[in-house]
């Protein structure tokens, strides 16, 4: 309680704020984390599918995987945590940025202004041309499916074609859908040059988007940041940790909202750092409440 009041007092006094959002916030909207897991999709390791090599070898397979992820992200709804972040972004305007590691578009869909939102791993709803000579990009493309051939590929199991063996028993089990073999012609193509489009996400083995990283660096360097909110991530993995460290070094304070928090932080042993353990979708709106209530802003889903 003491930590909460201290945090809220500092929040009200803070002019420039950075929020770092990780996968934990989207878990509360029902989306699993993919990075760093051994998750399987149709018996493929998800991490093996999220690479430039996988796309080069079999773009049809990788597009089916992303079609499934787009479908799940579209089904999910932004939660109270996303909404609180978006409200804060509206209130603080140019004195604020959100850096999200999530590609699911939920932060954007919760009413976050575009100008102070940085999706450092890209977005499932961005399409990019694969040609080196073409810079076509399509943002906020929520079409599902993207092509007729990708229809239904987002389902791992077929619930329509239920197996009904009425002679023996009444049990109904959905059938596993194998991956379709799709030709390049059946996949999303660039309206400018006709080459293949790819998902606008940062794959394993690819570097983060330089322009975005530059803009974040500029925000952190140009003036003192008073507070960094670390939401749904421990903040100890690159690049989140580097932002936290740089802001702290210049005298900024840190507040972590996550299910997993360092014990020393929880016990108040780490200087200028507060830790609020629990589901960030619940704890963050409560912690930000005094500021958000003073500045009611509209949110849309
Ligand atoms: Zn193109």
UniProtKB/TrEMBL annotation:
Domain Deacetylase sirtuin-type residue range list: 1-294
Broadest EC class assigned to this enzyme: transferase
Gene Ontology MF term list: histone deacetylase activity, NAD-dependent; NAD+ binding; protein-glutaryllysine deglutarylase activity; protein-malonyllysine demalonylase activity; protein-succinyllysine desuccinylase activity; zinc ion binding
UniProt keyword annotations, A-Z: Metal-binding, Mitochondrion, NAD, Transferase, Zinc
Positions with a binding annotation for substrate: 66, 69
Alphabetical list of Pfam families matching this protein: SIR2
Gene3D superfamilies, A to Z: SIR2/SIRT2 'Small Domain, TPP-binding domain
Bound cofactor: record note: Binds 1 zinc ion per subunit.
Annotated localization: Mitochondrion
Binding locations of NAD(+): 101-104, 232-234, 280
Listed cofactors: Zn(2+)
Annotated catalysed reactions: N(6)-malonyl-L-lysyl-[protein] + NAD(+) + H2O = 2''-O-malonyl-ADP-D-ribose + nicotinamide + L-lysyl-[protein]; N(6)-succinyl-L-lysyl-[protein] + NAD(+) + H2O = 2''-O-succinyl-ADP-D-ribose + nicotinamide + L-lysyl-[protein]; N(6)-glutaryl-L-lysyl-[protein] + NAD(+) + H2O = 2''-O-glutaryl-ADP-D-ribose + nicotinamide + L-lysyl-[protein]
Domain of life: Eukaryota
Record-listed E.C. numbers: 2.3.1.-
Family: Belongs to the sirtuin family. Class I subfamily.
Role according to the record: NAD-dependent lysine demalonylase, desuccinylase and deglutarylase that specifically removes malonyl, succinyl and glutaryl groups on target proteins. Has weak NAD-dependent protein deacetylase activity; however this activity may not be physiologically relevant in vivo.
Protein name: NAD-dependent protein deacylase
Organism listed in the record: Suhomyces tanzawaensis NRRL Y-17324
């Amino acid at each position: 309680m003491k930590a909460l009041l201290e945090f809220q007092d500092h929040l009200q006094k803070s002019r420039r704020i950075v929020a770092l959002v990780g996968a934990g916030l989207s878990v509360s909207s029902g989306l699993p984390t993919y990075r760093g897991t051994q998750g399987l999709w149709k018996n493929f390791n998800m991490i093996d599918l999220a690479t430039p090599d996988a796309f080069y070898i079999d773009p049809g397979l990788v597009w089916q995987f992303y079609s499934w992820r787009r479908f799940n992200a579209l089904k999910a709804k932004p939660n109270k945590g996303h909404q609180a972040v978006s409200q804060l972004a509206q209130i603080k305007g140019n004195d604020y940025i959100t850096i999200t590691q999530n590609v699911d578009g939920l932060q954007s869909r919760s009413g976050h202004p575009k100008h102070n939102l940085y999706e450092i791993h890209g977005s499932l709803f961005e399409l990019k041309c694969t040609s080196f000579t073409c810079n076509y990009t399509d943002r906020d493309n929520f079409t599902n499916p993207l092509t007729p051939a990708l229809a239904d590929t987002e389902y791992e199991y077929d619930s329509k074609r239920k197996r009904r063996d009425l002679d023996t028993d009444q049990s109904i089990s959905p059938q596993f859908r194998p991956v379709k073999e799709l030709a390049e012609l059946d996949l999303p193509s660039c309206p400018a040059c006709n080459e293949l489009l790819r998902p606008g996400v940062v794959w394993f083995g690819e570097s983060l988007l330089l322009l975005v990283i530059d803009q974040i660096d500029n925000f952190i360097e140009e003036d003192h940041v008073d507070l960094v909110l670390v939401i749904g991530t421990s903040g100890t993995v690159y690049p989140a940790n580097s932002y936290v460290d740089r802001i702290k070094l210049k005298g900024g304070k840190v507040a972590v909202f996550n299910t997993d928090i360092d014990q020393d932080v929880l016990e108040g042993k780490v200087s200028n750092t507060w830790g609020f353990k629990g589901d960030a979708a619940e704890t963050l709106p409560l912690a930000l409440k005094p500021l958000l209530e003073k500045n009611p802003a509209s949110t849309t889903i």
